[in-house]
Amino acid sequence: MMGGAPTNVWNDSINMGGTNNGIPGGFTMNVNDGSLNNTMDTTDVTLINNNTVNFEAQPQQQPQTDDVNQSAKRVHRVENFSSSQINNTVDTHMPLLQLNNPNGAILRSYYELSTNDVLNLPPIPTDEEYCARLNVSNNLLPLYDKSALQAARFAELALGALANNQVPLALELSNSSVMCLRNCVSTEETSGMVSLFNVARAYLLHGIFRSFRGDMARYFKYRRVCMTHIMQMNNESGVESLLAAISFHDAWAYLMHNAAEDSLPDIDDSLPRLNTSTNGGSTYSSMIATDPINQMWMQGSPRVFLNNEATPISRSLDAIACAIRTCCDQANCQFVDNAKAAESEVPGILSLSHGNGNGGEQFPGVSPTTSAVLANENELCSRNMVLSAKSLLDQDSGMSNGTIKKHGLYMVSSVMSAFLENGEMEEPQEG
């Protein structure tokens, strides 16, 4: 599932005349209201064009919590609507969220095997576990927190149903996740970073769901919404797992778009970048989220891997993502060199085979990833990244006494190792 190119693309951008909230800062969202059916997703959040946003966090400074909280809420605010059929769908599928529901357990198994066996996001706590952490009774669980938990659970089930080719059910579960996220902006109360983590997780999984359905524009939009939440969670427990998962899925997108950022969907008008300024490779989550080079996909040095405080699994996943980007960059550089060599023999071949459609070259310069690797080649070359990833996996296996085997990550690291070994070219012999 993670490695295959999406084949089933559908259009769900139905315009039903949503209104502008007039929200300060210019962030608005609109729900395309419509009836739910088995072939079309009609209730997803749509980010619409509006005024530009001045998002001016100063370099090396942490975002102001109050301002960022409000901005994050504005990003995923949705309009009120009265589609009772959609609300009924949420109620219909709510039993699937129970751990003792056999159908829900099957969908979670498909999600674990197809997606999370590689991404390794932490388990979503049960309501009882969550309430124990907050030291409150179940009936006093805040609406924001309860909705965040439900949104993340529905997002997992949607990916599980998609993996099992239950597409109509997957779309309904995805819609249910969106409806739960809607509740997260209908209240000002939140219990803190744990609830923000689950909202960020839900948006990321929803974006991955979109990408598997072939809608990469929505993936990049939901990814950015996810980042607005991550930027508030400076090295909170588990945040590195989100960043590593984003990094790995970004590497998949990096391959699909052949490392050409100019070919990516333009989402900046609907959801402006979270730019601050270059921050010297900081491993703080807010600095990673707001770094200009990471706005569309992760670039540069593998910062989760370089963070010794992160878990071995997250560091391993980020190392593999960096190796994938590096291999893609190297292949493109070799292609450019070959095309330039052929240019002398067949004039025009470079522009015909390597142009971006605008008269320029698709890869005019060195990517931030390649620049970082060249500056620290002994540590960050793709071969050493894969070896480090495997060592970290072995370290994690030792910590768990081998009881928790990361089969997906082991498979990916083994494939990358074989690819690099078979792809190495012998050095030319002198003399």
Could you walk me through the main structural features you see in this protein, from its secondary elements to its overall organization?
The chain contains 17 helices and 2 strands. The termini are far apart. Helix content is 54%, strand content 1%. With 431 residues, it is mostly helical.
Radius of gyration: 22 Å
Average of per-residue pLDDT values: 75
In percent, how helical is the residue content? Answer: 40-55%
Our measurement of the CA-to-CA distance between the termini, rounded to an integer number of angstroms, reads 49 Å
Fill in the keyword field for this structure.
mainly alpha, about 425 residues, disordered N terminus, about 55% helix, globular, two-stranded antiparallel ribbon, single chain
What topology does this entry show?
Blueprint: E1 29-31, E2 45-47, H1 65-75, H2 84-93, H3 102-119, H4 127-134, H5 143-163, H6 167-184, H7 193-212, H8 216-230, H9 239-256, H10 285-290, H11 303-306, H12 312-343, H13 349-354, H14 368-375, H15 377-380, H16 382-399, H17 407-423
Antiparallel strand pairs: 1-2
Quick overview:
By secondary structure, the protein is an all-alpha fold. The chain is built from 17 helices and two strands.
